[in-house]
Structures are given as structure tokens and as C-alpha cells.
């Protein structure tokens, strides 16, 4: 499961974000992008030393400054189900219109299947 | 350069409709997954006071006048919040361009306030 | 990076640049070694008392903060009584 799939599934869910400087932000995820830049609403900000607090209506956080995000446990199952459903849909629409076919191709690129049989040679060499 | 910056700033400063011209509209074929559009709509903050934090820990507030996709900001009536040495104070910087790549946090000042520990109550 | 694939669905230990140790099940990762951990717990080490485990749940850790990812041998790990372990906490990386 890709970290970014989890993050996009976390939209409108509460989360805790800690920045590299130790500040934390508790709020609901409004939006995110591929850089992991995020926007939160109804935010409680805590200083790095943990003794000052602010309430922010909303905020934007640059992804590169984030240390980690803590998200609701239930999301794991949600994302896994979504992936299963997507994979299923992919299988049934295979060989459809070429435009989508190109993007649907991932059965191979989607990580898991590729890494197992081929990883031995290529993957290790690079890592 | 200066001309570009200024024209740009003015263009962005214009309310709502002005924005359409600056950037191509999101294509309808955009996959729902790839977020190429900016996730922060700065137009709603134009002529409002925002708080901006930078890598390295500096922090300013100011009135947003203009911006671009890279998060470069044109901000007026800038007040730097100086937290160190200890007694927190401010200094006035006037009109400034804030470099997007160094910006780590943007939030509106309106609706934000320092509060007592909100997590004690919940436990 | 593809070597992380072998850790998926296994319990792993993460050491972060701030010195934290987190154990959890590796649920996913990407090219930048951003990592999803489920059922994760922070292990807090100290010289005064045994190791304290703080439940953290589902965690997404940015790859650039990660110093180490190691697979945990469940048999060995569960044979250790954490409450008897005294160890200095890992200090954060300083630049």
C-alpha cells in the first residue's frame, strides 16, 4: 500500500502531524498532493516544547517539513478494500479503450507482482 | 523583472475572476489521483492577514497581496515575529516578497488564537 | 528500495532521526521510503525504568526522517521482557 494512497484516503479525517521541528498539528485533512503538502482545518497547534497551544481555523503545511502523520486505524482497512476493488475493476476492463489501457496496465507496475519474481536481479543491484 | 513582479502582483490581487486568466483551467481528463492543482487556494486570503513560517524558524504575519504556484508571496505590512531572545516581539518589514521554497506553513490570522492546553480537558 | 518489499506485512523496527524507536507492521512504502506502519508502538528507553511501549496506531512516516528499518524476529522479540531492559535513549541527530 502506498503512503500517498493512505493519505488521500484520510481526507476529511482527523490526524496528527508532527513537523521536523517538533511542532504538532491536530486537525482534519482537507487536501493533499503528491509532495505530501497538506491543508488542515480546525487545527490545534502545539509548540515543540509542548507548552504553548494555538487554535487555527485552517493551515497549509509543506510536505518536506513533515516528520510523520498519525491517522485513524480504520483507514488501513478502507484503503485495502479500495485497492481490491480497483484491482478487480481493472481486471474486468482490461483490453478496453487504449487511453485507459495505458493507465490500467499497472497490474505489472503496481509493485507487488513485479518485485517478487524480478526483484532478485534488478532490485538488489540497485539497492 | 521588477515590472513582471509588479504586474503579476496586481493581477493576482484582483478578486476572484482575475484568477482564471493566469492559469489554465484544470483539464477535465485530470485523473482524480494526481493532484496537479494547487491544494491551497490562496485567492481567499488576498487582502487578509496571514501567518507564514519559514524553514529555519522565522515567522511573519502580513497582508497577502499576490502569489504564484510556487507559493512565492507578495505580502504588505509585514511584521516579523521574533521569538528569540526570550520576550517575543515584532519588527516591521513593510512590503515584502516571501520566497515560496522556504515557506513551511501558511495560515490565516483571522480565526487563529493562542489557547490553553486543549488536550487536558479531553483526558 | 525494492528490498523493502520483503518486509511488507512483517513487524519492523524504525529508528528515526530524532532518536525515536517505533515498532509496527509494515503496511506499505514508496520510492522515497515513506513508510506506512500499522499497529505501531513507540518504545521509550530509559536507564531508570524498563522500556515503555506507547501505542500509536496507524502511522505514516516520511522517508527522510528514517535512519533504520529492520525486520523483527517475532520469536526473539517476544522472548524479551521489555520491563527488564534498561538502556540509554538514542539521542537525536544534530546538524
From TrEMBL, chain A:
<comment type="similarity">
    <text>Belongs to the snRNP Sm proteins family.</text>
</comment>
<feature type="compositionally biased region" description="Low complexity">
    <location>
        <begin position="105"/>
        <end position="117"/>
    </location>
</feature>
<comment type="subunit">
    <text>LSm subunits form a heteromer with a doughnut shape.</text>
</comment>
<keyword id="KW-0694">RNA-binding</keyword>
<dbReference type="GO" id="GO:0000398">
    <property type="term" value="P:mRNA splicing, via spliceosome"/>
</dbReference>
<dbReference type="GO" id="GO:0097525">
    <property type="term" value="C:spliceosomal snRNP complex"/>
</dbReference>
<protein>
    <recommendedName>
        <fullName>LSM complex subunit LSM4</fullName>
    </recommendedName>
</protein>
<comment type="function">
    <text>Binds specifically to the 3'-terminal U-tract of U6 snRNA.</text>
</comment>
<dbReference type="GO" id="GO:0000956">
    <property type="term" value="P:nuclear-transcribed mRNA catabolic process"/>
</dbReference>
<keyword id="KW-0687">Ribonucleoprotein</keyword>
<dbReference type="GO" id="GO:0003723">
    <property type="term" value="F:RNA binding"/>
</dbReference>
<keyword id="KW-0508">mRNA splicing</keyword>
<dbReference type="InterPro" id="IPR034101">
    <property type="entry name" value="Lsm4"/>
</dbReference>
<dbReference type="Pfam" id="PF01423">
    <property type="entry name" value="LSM"/>
</dbReference>
<keyword id="KW-0747">Spliceosome</keyword>
From TrEMBL, chain B:
<dbReference type="InterPro" id="IPR001163">
    <property type="entry name" value="Sm_dom_euk/arc"/>
</dbReference>
<dbReference type="InterPro" id="IPR017132">
    <property type="entry name" value="Lsm7"/>
</dbReference>
<dbReference type="GO" id="GO:0005689">
    <property type="term" value="C:U12-type spliceosomal complex"/>
</dbReference>
<dbReference type="Pfam" id="PF01423">
    <property type="entry name" value="LSM"/>
</dbReference>
<keyword id="KW-0508">mRNA splicing</keyword>
<dbReference type="GO" id="GO:0000398">
    <property type="term" value="P:mRNA splicing, via spliceosome"/>
</dbReference>
<feature type="region of interest" description="Disordered">
    <location>
        <begin position="1"/>
        <end position="36"/>
    </location>
</feature>
<keyword id="KW-0747">Spliceosome</keyword>
<protein>
    <submittedName>
        <fullName>U6 snRNA-associated Sm-like protein LSm7</fullName>
    </submittedName>
</protein>
<feature type="domain" description="Sm">
    <location>
        <begin position="37"/>
        <end position="112"/>
    </location>
</feature>
<dbReference type="InterPro" id="IPR044641">
    <property type="entry name" value="Lsm7/SmG-like"/>
</dbReference>
<dbReference type="GO" id="GO:0071013">
    <property type="term" value="C:catalytic step 2 spliceosome"/>
</dbReference>
<dbReference type="GO" id="GO:0097526">
    <property type="term" value="C:spliceosomal tri-snRNP complex"/>
</dbReference>
<keyword id="KW-0539">Nucleus</keyword>
<dbReference type="InterPro" id="IPR010920">
    <property type="entry name" value="LSM_dom_sf"/>
</dbReference>
TrEMBL record, chain C:
<dbReference type="GO" id="GO:0000398">
    <property type="term" value="P:mRNA splicing, via spliceosome"/>
</dbReference>
<keyword id="KW-0507">mRNA processing</keyword>
<dbReference type="InterPro" id="IPR034103">
    <property type="entry name" value="Lsm8"/>
</dbReference>
<dbReference type="GO" id="GO:0005688">
    <property type="term" value="C:U6 snRNP"/>
</dbReference>
<dbReference type="Pfam" id="PF01423">
    <property type="entry name" value="LSM"/>
</dbReference>
<dbReference type="GO" id="GO:0046540">
    <property type="term" value="C:U4/U6 x U5 tri-snRNP complex"/>
</dbReference>
<dbReference type="InterPro" id="IPR010920">
    <property type="entry name" value="LSM_dom_sf"/>
</dbReference>
<comment type="function">
    <text>Plays role in pre-mRNA splicing as component of the U4/U6-U5 tri-snRNP complex that is involved in spliceosome assembly, and as component of the precatalytic spliceosome (spliceosome B complex). The heptameric LSM2-8 complex binds specifically to the 3'-terminal U-tract of U6 snRNA.</text>
</comment>
<keyword id="KW-0747">Spliceosome</keyword>
<dbReference type="GO" id="GO:0005681">
    <property type="term" value="C:spliceosomal complex"/>
</dbReference>
<feature type="domain" description="Sm">
    <location>
        <begin position="1"/>
        <end position="75"/>
    </location>
</feature>
<keyword id="KW-0508">mRNA splicing</keyword>
<keyword id="KW-0694">RNA-binding</keyword>
<protein>
    <recommendedName>
        <fullName>LSM2-LSM8 complex subunit LSM8</fullName>
    </recommendedName>
</protein>
<comment type="subunit">
    <text>LSm subunits form a heteromer with a doughnut shape.</text>
</comment>
Amino acid at each position: 500500500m502506498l503512503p500517498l494512497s493512505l493519505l488521500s484516503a484520510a481526507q476529511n479525517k482527523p490526524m496528527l502531524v508532527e513537523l521536523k521541528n517538533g511542532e504538532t498539528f491536530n486537525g482534519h485533512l482537507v487536501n493533499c498532493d503528491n509532495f505530501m503538502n497538506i491543508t488542515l482545518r480546525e487545527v490545534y497547534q502545539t509548540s515543540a516544547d509542548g507548552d504553548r497551544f494555538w487554535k487555527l481555523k485552517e493551515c497549509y503545511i509543506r510536505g518536506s517539513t513533515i516528520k510523520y502523520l498519525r491517522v485513524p486505524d480504520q483507514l488501513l482497512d478502507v484503503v485495502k478494500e479500495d485497492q481490491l476493488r480497483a484491482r478487480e475493476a481493472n481486471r474486468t476492463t482490461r483490453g478496453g479503450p487504449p487511453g485507459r489501457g495505458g493507465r490500467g496496465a499497472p497490474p505489472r507496475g503496481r509493485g507487488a507482482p513485479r518485485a517478487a519474481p524480478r526483484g532478485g536481479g534488478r532490485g538488489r543491484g540497485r539497492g | 523583472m521588477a515590472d513582471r513582479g509588479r504586474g503579476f502582483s496586481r493581477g493576482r490581487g484582483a478578486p476572484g475572476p482575475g484568477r482564471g486568466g493566469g492559469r489554465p483551467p484544470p483539464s477535465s481528463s485530470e485523473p482524480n489521483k494526481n493532484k496537479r492543482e494547487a491544494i491551497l487556494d490562496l485567492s481567499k486570503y488576498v487582502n487578509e492577514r496571514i501567518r507564514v513560517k519559514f524553514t529555519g524558524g522565522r515567522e511573519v504575519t502580513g497582508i497577502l497581496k499576490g502569489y504564484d504556484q510556487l507559493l512565492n508571496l507578495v505580502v504588505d505590512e509585514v511584521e516579523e515575529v521574533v521569538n528569540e531572545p526570550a520576550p517575543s516581539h515584532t519588527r516591521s518589514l513593510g512590503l515584502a516578497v516571501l520566497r515560496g521554497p522556504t515557506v513551511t506553513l501558511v495560515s490565516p490570522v483571522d480565526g487563529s488564537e493562542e489557547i490553553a492546553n486543549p488536550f487536558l480537558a479531553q483526558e | 528500495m525494492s528490498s523493502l518489499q520483503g518486509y511488507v506485512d512483517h513487524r519492523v523496527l524504525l529508528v528515526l532521526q530524532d532518536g525515536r524507536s517505533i515498532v509496527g507492521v509494515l503496511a506499505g512504502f514508496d520510492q522515497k521510503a515513506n513508510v506506512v506502519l500499522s499497529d505501531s508502538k513507540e518504545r521509550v528507553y530509559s536507564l531508570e525504568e524498563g522500556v515503555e511501549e506507547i501505542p500509536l496506531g496507524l502511522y505514516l512516516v516520511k522517508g527522510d526522517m528514517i535512519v533504520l528499518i529492520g525486520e523483527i524476529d517475532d520469536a526473539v522479540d517476544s522472548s524479551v521482557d521489555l520491563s527488564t531492559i534498561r538502556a540509554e535513549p538514542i539521542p537525536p541527530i544534530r546538524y
